[in-house]
Amino acid sequence: MAYQDRETHYVEKTNGNSAGWFMAGALVVALIAGGLLYANGFFTNDEELSIELNVPNLGEGELKLPDMKEAPLVKEP
Fold first, then answer.
1. How large a percentage of the chain has pLDDT more than 70?
2. What transmembrane ranges does the database entry give (predicted)?
3. Does pTM surpass 0.70?
């Protein structure tokens, strides 16, 4: 019969690596940034679009714009 040596072996475990903690921190920052954007209404669907153009009058006379019903801007062939 063979003699068996029974010994207890202890394995030391690490508390985690730095890459895992970095990924967890990046996820927390992304969640906080997304929450702030959502709270400020960044992800809402705005159906309206308004563009204003203010041109100062330089006193050189009035610029007459063509009436769209009478004269189109592009002539059709």
1. 64
2. 20-39
3. no
